[in-house]
Amino acid sequence: MMDFAAMPQAKPTATMLYLICGKIAAGKSTFAKQLSEPSKTVLISEDVWLASVYPGQITSLEEYARCSGLLRSVMAPHIVGLLQAGVSVVLDFPSNTLATRAWARELIEKAGVAHELHYLDVADALCKARLHARNASGEHPFETTETQFDLFSRYFVAPQESEGFHIIHHQITE
Q1: CA distance 170 to 32
Q2: Strand ranges, E, within 25-87
Q3: Considering the entire predicted model, what is its pTM?
């Protein structure tokens, strides 16, 4: 289990949108929960919403992309509204591609808030080991195979400074 408590984090002084980037089983949801602990901070989890709204329907990358896109479009005004009301938001939505980060950029601009993009940089072998443990626990809403991990990882694009995000890079080795 990761201990994110030792990792430096900004103290929320203003309304903030927290974004998280990392491959499957990198620890995004665990980290998101810790980021959401301060008062006036709401955690919104894509996996929880997708599992509830589309039970049993997400069986392929294409279905994930379709359902995730629909969820993002319906959630965007709600997220902007929370931010504009002074509530910080932790998005446990993977900011793993240029397109998903462009969506997040629109939220930031519409809401006019500060942001942090936390990049959880974890080696594939460690992610796969965590994935096996997560699947065995049965606590995650989705069970992911190594083949699916490899497929989704092909679309992963690490964030770059040129995208204009405030990136906080976490190199995780255990």
Answers
A1: 13
A2: 41-45
A3: 0.87
Phi and psi torsions of 118, nearest 5°? -90, 120
Q: What count of Cα atoms within 13 Å lies in the side-chain half-sphere of residue 142?
A: 25
- SS3 assignment, position 81: helix
Give 125-150 as a DSSP string.
HHHHHHHHHHHHHT-SSS---HHHHH
Residue type, 23: K
> Is residue 70 within 8 Å of residue 46, measured between CB atoms?
no
Q: What are the tens digits of pLDDT across the range 14-62?
A: 899 999 999 999 999 999 999 999 888 999 999 899 999 999 888 888 9
Closest to 112 in 3D by CA, of 67, 152, 80, 147: 80
Cβ(135)–Cβ(143) below 8 Å: yes
Gap between the Cα atoms of 71 and 38, Å rounded: 25
- Contact indicator for 120, 22 with CB cutoff of 8 Å: yes
Q: What span, in angstroms and rounded, lies between the C-alpha atoms of 174 and 170? A: 12
